[in-house]
Write a structure and sequence with these properties.
Layout lengths: L7 E2 L3 E5 L5 H9 L17 H11 L6 E6 L4 E12 L4 E9 L7 H17 L4 E7 L3 H10 L2 E11 L5 E10 L3 H13 L1
Parallel strand pairs: 5-6
Antiparallel strand pairs: 1-2, 2-3, 3-4, 4-5, 6-8, 7-8
Helix pairs in contact: 3-5
Amino acid sequence: MWIKKQIIEGQHVVLEPLSQAHLGKLINAVKDGEHWKLWFANVPTPDSMEQYVAAAISQMEKGNIAYAVRHKKTNQIVGTTRYYDVDCKNKRALIGYTWYANSVRRTAVNTECKYLLLEQLFEQCEAIAVEFRTHIKNDASRAAIERLGAKQDGILRNHQILNDGSIRDTVVYSIINREWLTVKEQLLTKLCK
């Protein structure tokens, strides 16, 4: 595999490759905030978490590595994030399927998770680009992606039909390898505050 399935540890979080052992803890985490109720977000419900975890684990065989996010201060699982649509031939991947318990939103958790994932891709895997996608109406996600230093590439109009039948326009962002050192410096500055 191009991306190693391994534990990634930072100062605030530990990214643990997702397993069935995380299921109950993820159900507890997703109940903190009920973000599955946001029509523009793709967050599992407590009842659908078992399917969500099973699907993510099955995708790992294709090199799409999903992680449970453990908050080091509390030792609690507080959400998930993953690499997906991994393209080892072209040395690029998407980062997404990210959601967190309300208790860690607007903390260093997301910044450090993204920093660790980006660092692994650019420095260990020698990626040439990393992509992020979100619903055009998800202003919080768009702002978080932009704060990372990603640049908007464009909008995929009428990109997906969602479960409720609505049509999603998807905003595409990326960070390319020659931008990584600047992005890295900015993220480390944010994490030191």
